[in-house]
Each structure stands twice: as structure tokens, then as C-alpha cells.
């Protein structure tokens, strides 16, 4: 089959509509139908890979909400639901950046929480210096980008991403800890209320931000050259290198994006709580990783999506909220979170074909 | 040799699939005590799958295997060992830091918990005698030459007192003198009443060593044949399923200007400076065994591995190539021989594989165009005769032949001037092989310059317009494709010293 036999586009685009006989249009329609048929999943394995995993992670979220609603009074209340989508937005925003790293085959950044905390402090400090919120926002995100790019550059040079980001985490939190003497920087103006307090249709701005970022991130992942390169780099790093894909640039960019999303989360926390503090977003890194994995993005990379991560974030936060309402201690919540990751990862492994792969 | 009439091992209708890929359609096999059974077949013919079933590395999907009339399950290496099947693997499993004697008893159930020097010396000495290896058992195994390590490996297997011994290409990496020693051991084992299966790519060995031969082709076994009734042509025809001449398209009719010129090229695994000239429309075959320097030259020229010296001229202009990306930018595409490693993206769709190197062409302004992607993939699929209805399949679900078509085809998306291919038909069945040869010829006729490296002699003889032979990291000789003979090539890639002596 050659190019000519493929329908290139509607015949209208190749000449004026009047010139075309009905037969030609008919032919084009048939070819298009054929091509659509080709796009349908061909086999169970294909279906499994494309739809089964996101379906599972979506159903998991639904299951938690249904179970919570039935068993726990107050779980479905407006306040609780708002609180869930507010917190899930933070985990989710960080998860979007993390998903780029995971998709590219570099596993995770373990410095997300610290980057978030650093940015919350930087943002709070700038506001207290009398800066306007847009300037503070932009400069804070530039700092985040720089911090991520440096880590990405190390990884691109061949360093292990886990080692580098653990080391970076310590360094990132160390500097503001010294500068602030580990004390909170309090925002005592209303400058940041636009970010911290505003809502649209009753939904907090950070949730809207999360939804918008998810749409953008998903678009970048599946419809841009960068996104495809990230996916291929994760699917087979050696083959990607051989195909001439710019691996080093991919590393720098994915770590930069992850750092920026962590920075956004940090800014939201500072604006909401009116303080920049080194314990902001503490322990969120593992929660974010859990969201990515429970969403169903493959840990070795090359397969996954932003929507999956969103489901993962919803699941983690919803189950946490349910346990809080039922009065379980943080220890139990951590335990359940861990078990959920194990269960999710095992289930997805089976869904991908298990040991037969 | 004394052959008992009672068959020692009988396998009937053994089959194995991996997902949708049928690795072994059906195999029947028989083996008597005291005989050497040759096992031959092209890569991907199902031979290695069958062998792995016998040694318990794979579990068969169906079929029966009887040893001495008794059904055996096998299914794990430990069970296969208990059933009396011992294997000498292609990759040596000698531990280089242990002594020869310790290696002989490695993992041996009857070995003592504490091995004293005295005990080792006595017991190991005996086993080493069996294989005619006269060395100090306390020598560190890593210090031995390759051939002797191979003998230690055999001694270790023999020490297990197995009824059946499987040797998987034991001579693939050995020079001639050492091959003779291995053959000697094999004869001795058979004479001692063991049943020996000898897997080899060198057809000469079959005639030299085996009593009978079982040929695998396209996932099926053929009835065992008495070696005495066969000649070389007949054996090749049985392996390929057709005469050699029917496999290959006619040679190039018009060859253009020089595209790629490589001179004084030195890279890891190719110590003596090598040179290479490729013209438009020409297919150059580099013949050599694994590690001979043929594949290394391709890797070096393509920037996949670094080179220490040499000049590369593309269309007459000096070019520096230090990475695969740099090679692609200069119009040189390299298709690796290990497609699973860096040839394709197993869990991504065929479509995405085809368009990976030529990503720029389907992403105008950095945005991916589904229309362009589908168009490019379809056109590449057409060029390598890949079924476009399968563009949405994942590569991991395809057969070896189709995987190779994707692996090769994706490079055409960058419109290279030179295509370097390492082992173009490794793990590809016969039908797809003929298609790949035809594809390469069509591409050459359209003006592409093709260089391929292979260890299969009939492949260079059938396909290449000119041939360069390699042996142990150096270039040996250059031939016109139509004039080269199999004998000359085999002499070159196995013992060049004789060739040089004859020339002087």
C-alpha cells in the first residue's frame, strides 16, 4: 500500500466542492470508515493496554466514594467533597509533573515536597516584601524551574534520578531552613487572597487550575513532539537513543516540569494558609508517587496518562478523607495508602498481562 | 558407534506459544543412546524454543516427552536435571574467580558441603580426564583460554552423570584446533553410551560429527534424517524450505557514485584499521562471526559506539559522527542486530514505532499530526511490505519477521542515504526473510546504499553485491558478490592464517 491509497483528507480540501462528484465523496467516506476501523483496538491485549487500566483506576475512585457515602455520614457532604477536591488538586498538580518523569523512564523525583516548601517560603517572602502577587508568582516559578533543571541536568549526565533527587531534597530544604531559621514567614496582607481564597462556581481556584493543567499536560503528552519523545524514551530508552531522540533535553524538561508543578502547589499552600514554612507539603512526595502509580502509569515508563494520575490523586485523597472521618489514626492511613499502592500496582501488572509479558 | 535400537528420548507434538506468537508449532523428536543427533535450523525456526523446553527453561503448552518410555514433565531446570538431561549452554556459566575443580562441582547435588583441596583434586581430576583436559584442577578458571573453559563446562555437565547431553553451539566461539578437541569429547561421550544432542550453525559439523540430524523450519520439526544420506545442498534446502537461489532477488544492475567511504577505522572490537566503500544502489555484505569486527564496524560508523581512529566521508565530504543522532543528521541510519534491546518500542503501537526516528516529519510546529503520522507509517509499511491493518498492534504481539520489518522500516522515515543493518534476519522465519531481502534490494534499486553484517554465509552470498570478510577484529578480504564462494568465505571467517599463508 502506498501513500496515494490512503485518504489524505476530505476531497473538499483538494478542490472546490462543486467539482467533486458524489461518488468521490462516497469513496472518501468509505476509506475513512476503513481507517477508523483500523484505529479500533485489534485485540484484547490492545484493549487492555489502552482502556482497561484507566477504567480500573476510575472505578476505584467511584468505589471509594460509594462506599464512603453508604457507610460514613458526612462523607458526601458539600464541605467534605469540597475539601477532597481541594486537597486532591494539590496532589494532582504535583502528580502531573511527576507523571512526565515517570513516563520518560526516570522513575520519580523525590524532591517534590521540598521544592513545594521552598516555593511556599519564596512566595510568602516576596509578598511580605510588598511585591504584587503576579510578580511573586512568576519569580517563584522561575526559581522552581531552575531547581528542577539543575536536577534534570545531573540526570541527563547519567546520574541516578533517585539518588540525585534525594540529595537535592536535602539541599533544597536546607537553604530556606537556614535563611528563615525554620520559622514561618507570615503573610499579613490580602495580596495573595486571589490565589488562596477565590473560587469559581463555588469550586476553589486550585481545583480549576488542576483541571486546566491536566488538560494542558495531557495535550502535551499525546499531541506534541515533546510528549511523544517522552513516551518513547520511557518505552525503551536505548531504542529512543538510537532513534536520535534528544534524551538529555527530555530529562532536563521533565524534571523542570515536575519542579514547576511542585512550585505551583507550594504557592497555593502559602496563599491559603498565609504562611511560608519548611514543613508545608511535608510528606507529600510519597503521596504524589502513590497517585501516579495508583492511577496506572507504568513505573518503568512509556505507558500512562495525566488522566490516570488525576484518578490516582482523587483515590488517595478520598480514601484518606474517609479514614479521617471514621476516626483512624495517621498511622492507619499511611498503612492503607501503602497497601493501596501495592494492590494497585499488582492489579495493573496483571492487567498488563502479568508474567507473560 | 554403537547405537541401541531402543529410543532413549521420544518427544511428540510438543508446542509452545508466547501470547499470540507461536514459537514452536509442533515438534517430534527422537534420540537413542550412543548417538550424536545434530540439531539445525535457522534462527527463529523453533529450534532454541524446543531446546529450552528440553532443559526445562520453558514449559511446553502441549505434547508428550518420554524418557525410556516414561512420560516426564520437565518444566523447570531442576526437574530436567533429575530426568537426566544436562545442558552445555552457549554462554559459558563458568565462574571465573573459582578454581576449575570448584567449577566442576558448582551446584552439584552430590558435591560435599565442605570441599577440601584433596577431595577436589581427586574427584575433579577424574572428571577432567573424561573430557581429555590435562590441567591442574586448582587453576583459576578465568585464567584458562576460552576453549578450555568450554571443556570445563562440559566436564561439569558430564560429572552429573546425565543420560542425555545437550550441547548448544559449543564451538561457536572457538578456533579450529579447539573445535577438534570439543569434537573429540563429544565422540567420547557418545561412545560411552550417552545420548548427545549437538546444536550447531556450522553445517560442516553435522557431517563430521552427527549420526542423524533433525532439522527445524518455521516452527516445525522434520523427521530425523541419516546424515550419510544427505549432502550439504540437501541440508540447506531442508533448512530453508526452498533452494537457496529462490530466496534472493537478482543483484544490482546499476550502481551509482560512492556515498560512504570509511578509511583507517578503528573501534572497540575492530583493532586493525578497516576501510569500506559503499555506492548508491549497492548492497555490501560484511561477513563474520559474532565479535569478528563486522558488526563493530557498523556500530562505530553509526556513532553507536565510539571510534578511536578513522575517517568517514559522506558523498566526498569529511564527516564527524559521534552519536546515533549525529549519524542520522548525516543521512546514516543504523539498524541494530538486537532489536529487542534498541530496535523497537515493544509496548507501543507499530505506528509509533515507524514514526519514532522521523518524529520531526509528523510534528510540524512541534504539534503531532495524526494525519501525517498515519500517512508516514502507511508509506513505510508499504516499503517493507508490512500489513497496514496491523499498524495499531503493539510490536510485542508481532512475529519475529514482522518485528524486524518494523525495526528496519522505521529508519526509512528519516530518508537515509546509507542504511547499516546488523544481522538483518536474526530470529526471522524463512518466508519473512525472503521478503526482507527483497525489501533491501528494492531500497537499493531506489538509490539507497545498504551495508549489512551477518554470520550467515548464504545470506552474504545471496544478497550482497560486494562482500568484505572479518575475523577476530580485523578485515580479511574483499570479494565481488557474484564471484565469492562459500568455501572462501568460510575459510576467511574461521581461519585467516591459512589464507594468508597460501597467499604468500
List the helices and strands and how they pair.
The complex is a heterodimer of chains A (357) and B (504).
Chain A: H1 22-39, H2 44-71, H3 78-103, H4 112-128, H5 133-156, H6 161-180, E1 185-186, H7 193-197, E2 199-200, E3 203-204, H8 205-223, H9 225-235, H10 237-242, H11 247-273, E4 275-276, H12 284-295, H13 306-325, H14 330-351
Antiparallel strand pairs in A: 1-4, 2-3
Chain B: E1 7-18, E2 21-32, E3 36-41, H1 47-54, E4 62-67, E5 70-71, H2 77-82, E6 85-88, H3 100-104, H4 117-130, H5 146-158, E7 164-168, H6 176-191, E8 195-199, H7 203-209, E9 212-217, E10 220-221, E11 225-226, H8 232-240, H9 244-247, E12 258-267, E13 270-279, E14 283-287, H10 294-301, E15 307-314, E16 317-318, H11 324-329, E17 332-335, H12 339-342, H13 350-355, H14 359-362, H15 370-383, H16 400-412, E18 418-422, H17 430-445, E19 449-454, H18 457-463, E20 466-471, E21 474-480, H19 486-494, H20 496-503
Parallel strand pairs in B: 3-8, 3-9, 6-7, 7-8, 14-19, 14-20, 17-18, 18-19
Antiparallel strand pairs in B: 1-2, 1-4, 4-5, 9-10, 9-11, 12-13, 12-15, 15-16, 20-21
Helix pairs in contact in B: 5-6, 15-16, 16-17
Write down the CATH topology of the largest domain in chain B.
Rossmann fold
Radius of gyration of chain B: 24 Å
Identify the CATH class of chain A.
Mainly Alpha
Overall spatial form of chain A? globular
CATH superfamily of the largest domain in chain B: P-loop containing nucleotide triphosphate hydrolases
Structural class of chain A, please? mainly alpha
Low-pLDDT segments of chain A: 1-15
Helical stretch count of chain A?
A: 14
CATH topology of chain A: ABC transporter involved in vitamin B12 uptake, BtuC
- Based on the coordinates given, report the CATH architecture of chain A: Orthogonal Bundle
Shape call of chain B: globular
Largest sheet of chain A: 2 strands, antiparallel
- Calculate the mean pLDDT score of chain A and round it: 87
Amino acid at each position: 500500500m502506498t501513500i496515494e491509497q490512503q485518504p489524505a483528507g476530505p476531497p473538499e480540501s483538494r478542490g472546490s466542492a462543486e467539482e467533486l462528484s458524489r461518488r468521490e465523496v462516497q469513496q472518501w467516506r468509505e476509506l475513512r470508515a476503513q481507517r477508523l476501523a483500523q484505529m479500533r483496538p485489534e485485540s484484547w491485549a490492545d484493549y487492555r493496554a489502552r482502556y482497561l487500566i484507566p477504567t480500573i483506576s476510575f472505578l476505584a475512585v467511584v468505589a471509594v466514594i460509594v462506599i464512603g457515602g453508604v457507610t460514613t455520614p458526612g462523607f458526601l457532604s458539600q464541605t467534605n467533597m469540597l475539601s477532597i477536591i481541594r486537597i486532591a488538586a494539590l496532589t494532582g498538580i504535583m502528580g502531573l509533573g511527576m507523571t512526565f518523569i515517570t513516563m520518560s523512564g526516570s522513575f520519580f523525583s523525590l524532591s517534590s515536597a521540598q521544592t513545594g516548601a521552598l516555593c511556599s517560603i519564596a512566595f510568602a517572602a516576596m509578598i511580605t516584601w510588598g511585591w504584587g502577587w503576579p510578580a511573586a508568582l512568576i519569580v517563584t516559578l522561575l526559581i522552581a524551574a531552575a531547581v528542577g533543571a539543575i536536577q534534570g541536568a545531573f540526570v541527563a549526565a547519567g546520574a541516578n534520578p533517585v539518588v540525585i533527587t534525594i540529595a537535592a531534597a536535602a539541599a533544597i530544604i536546607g537553604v530556606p531552613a537556614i535563611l528563615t531559621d525554620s520559622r514561618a514567614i507570615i503573610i499579613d496582607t490580602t495580596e495573595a487572597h486571589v490565589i488562596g481564597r477565590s473560587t469559581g462556581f463555588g469550586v476553589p481556584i486550585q481545583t480549576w487550575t488542576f483541571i486546566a493543567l491536566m488538560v494542558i499536560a495531557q495535550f502535551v503528552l499525546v499531541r506534541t513532539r515533546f510528549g511523544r519523545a517522552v513516551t518513547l524514551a520511557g518505552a525503551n530508552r536505548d531504542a529512543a537513543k538510537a532513534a536520535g531522540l534528544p534524551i538529555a533535553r527530555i530529562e532536563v524538561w521533565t524534571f523542570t516540569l515536575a519542579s514547576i508543578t511542585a512550585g505551583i502547589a507550594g504557592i497555593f499552600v502559602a496563599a491559603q494558609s498565609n504562611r511560608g514554612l519548611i514543613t508545608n507539603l511535608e510528606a507529600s512526595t510519597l503521596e504524589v508517587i502513590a497517585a501516579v502509580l495508583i492511577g496506572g502509569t507504568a513505573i518503568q515508563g512509556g505507558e500512562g496518562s495525566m488522566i490516570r494520575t488525576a484518578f490516582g490523586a482523587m483515590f488517595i485523597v478520598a480514601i484518606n478523607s474517609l479514614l479521617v472521618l471514621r476516626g483512624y489514626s495517621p498511622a492507619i492511613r499511611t498503612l492503607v495508602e501503602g497497601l493501596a499502592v501495592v494492590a494497585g500496582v499488582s492489579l495493573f501488572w496483571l492487567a498488563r498481562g502479568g508474567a507473560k509479558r | 558407534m554403537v547405537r541401541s535400537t531402543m529410543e532413549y528420548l521420544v518427544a511428540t507434538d510438543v508446542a509452545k506459544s508466547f501470547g499470540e506468537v507461536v514459537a514452536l508449532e509442533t515438534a517430534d523428536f527422537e534420540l537413542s543412546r550412543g548417538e550424536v543427533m545434530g540439531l539445525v535450523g535457522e534462527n527463529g525456526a523453533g529450534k532454541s524454543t524446543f531446546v529450552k523446553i528440553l532443559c526445562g527453561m520453558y514449559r511446553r503448552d502441549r505434547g508428550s516427552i518420554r524418557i525410556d518410555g516414561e512420560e516426564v514433565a520437565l518444566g523447570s531446570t531442576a526437574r530436567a536435571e533429575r530426568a537426566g538431561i544436562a545442558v552445555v549452554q552457549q554462554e559459558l556459566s563458568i565462574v571465573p574467580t573459582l578454581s576449575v575443580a570448584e567449577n566442576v562441582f558448582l551446584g552439584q547435588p552430590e558435591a560435599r558441603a565442605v570441599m577440601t583441596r584433596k577431595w577436589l583434586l581427586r574427584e575433579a581430576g577424574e572428571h577432567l580426564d573424561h573430557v581429555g583436559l590435562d590441567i591442574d584442577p586448582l587453576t583459576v578458571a578465568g585464567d584458562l583460554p576460552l576453549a578450555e573453559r568450554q571443556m570445563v563446562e562440559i566436564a561439569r555437565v558430564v560429572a552429573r552423570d546425565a543420560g542425555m547431553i545437550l550441547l548448544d553451539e559449543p564451538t561457536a566461539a572457538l578456533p579450529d584446533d579447539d573445535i577438534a578437541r570439543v569434537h573429540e569429547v563429544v565422540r567420547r561421550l557418545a561412545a560411552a553410551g550417552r545420548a548427545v544432542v549437538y546444536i550447531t550453525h556450522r553445517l560442516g559439523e553435522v557431517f563430521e560429527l552427527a549420526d542423524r540430524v533433525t532439522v527445524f523450519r518455521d516452527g516445525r520439526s522434520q523427521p530425523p534424517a541419516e546424515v550419510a544420506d544427505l549432502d550439504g545442498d540437501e541440508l540447506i534446502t531442508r533448512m530453508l524450505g526452498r533452494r537457496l537461489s529462490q530466496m534472493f532477488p537478482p543483484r544490482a544492475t546499476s550502481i551509482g557514485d560512492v556515498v560512504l567511504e570509511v578509511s583507517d577505522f578503528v573501534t572497540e572490537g575492530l583493532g586493525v584499521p578497516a576501510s569500506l566503500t559503499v555506492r548508491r544502489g549497492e548492497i555490501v555484505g560484511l561477513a563474520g562471526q559474532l565479535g569478528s569486527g563486522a558488526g563493530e564496524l557498523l556500530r562505530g560508523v553509526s556513532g553507536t559506539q565510539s571510534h578511536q581512529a578513522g575517517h568517514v566521508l559522506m558523498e566526498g565530504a569529511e564527516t564527524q559522527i559521534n552519536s546515533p543522532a549525529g549519524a542520522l543528521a548525516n543521512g546514516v541510519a543504523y539498524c541494530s542486530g538486537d532489536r529487542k534491546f534498541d530496535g523497537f518500542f515493544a509496548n507501543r503501537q507499530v505506528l509509533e514505532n515507524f514514526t519514532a526516528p522521523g518524529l520531526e516529519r509528523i510534528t510540524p510546529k512541534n504539534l503531532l499530526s495524526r494525519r501525517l503520522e498515519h500517512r508516514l507509517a502507511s508509506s513505510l509499511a508499504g516499503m517493507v511490505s508490512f500489513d497496514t491493518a496491523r499498524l495499531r498492534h503493539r510490536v510485542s504481539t508481532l512475529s519475529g519477521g514482522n518485528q524486524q520489518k518494523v525495526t528496519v522500516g522505521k529508519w526509512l522515515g528519516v530518508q537515509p542515504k546509507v542504511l547499516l543493518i546488523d544481522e538483518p534476519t536474526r530470529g526471522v522465519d524463512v518466508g519473512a526473510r525472503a521478503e526482507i531481502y527483497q525489501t533491501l534490494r528494492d531500497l537499493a534499486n531506489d538509490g539507497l546504499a545498504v551495508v549489512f553484517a551477518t554470520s550467515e554465509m548464504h545470506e552474504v552470498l545471496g544478497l550482497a553485491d560486494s562482500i568484505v570478510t572479518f575475523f577476530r577484529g580485523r578485515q580479511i578480504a574483499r570479494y565481488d558478490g557474484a564471484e565469492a564462494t562459500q568455501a572462501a568465505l568460510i575459510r576467511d571467517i574461521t581461519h585467516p592464517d591459512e589464507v594468508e599463508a597460501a597467499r604468500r
